[in-house]
Amino acid sequence: MNRTIERILKESKTIAVVGLSSDPSRASFGVARYLQRSGYRIVPVNPKETEVLGEQAYPSLAAIPQEINIDIVNVFRRPEQTPAVAQEAIIRGAKALWLQSGIANAEALKIAQSAGLDYIEDECIMIRHGQLPTA
Fold this sequence. Notes:
Strand content: 15-25%
Radius of gyration: 13 Å
Number of domains: 1
Distance between the termini: 14 Å
Strand order of the largest sheet: 2-1-5-6-7
Mean pLDDT: 96
Largest sheet: 5 strands, parallel
Shape: globular
CATH superfamily: NAD(P)-binding Rossmann-like Domain
CATH class: Alpha Beta
Number of helices: 5
CATH topology: Rossmann fold
Order of helices and strands: HEHEEEEHEHEH
C-alpha cells in the first residue's frame, strides 16, 4: 500500500464528498456509506441535496461551517470540474484532495500540490481503505 494513502486514511476523521448523491444506486452514495460505517464523518457537498446519509448537505465546500475541519475532499465530479474543487479545498483548509476512480486532471494536481495538499487521483477511496493493514 502506498504510504501516503495509508497515512491519509489513518490520520483523517472528516471527509467532504463533493458530488455525493442521495440516490443509493450511485457510486458516491455507496462509497460514502461505506466510509461512514468505517468511522469517518461524511460531509455531503451537492447543491441539489439537503441531506444525505443523515448528514446535512452543503452546496459547496465554502458553505461548510468553519468549525467543521475537513481532512479529505473526495471528488465525484467530471475531470474538468476538479481544478475549481482543488481551489475550494485549499481555501477551506483541507489536507488532501482525492479524485475517485476514472478522475484525473493535471491542473487540479498542480493546484493542490502548489498549496501542499496531499493529492490522490484515479483511485477509489473505499477500495484503498479496504486494503489498509488491520494491525
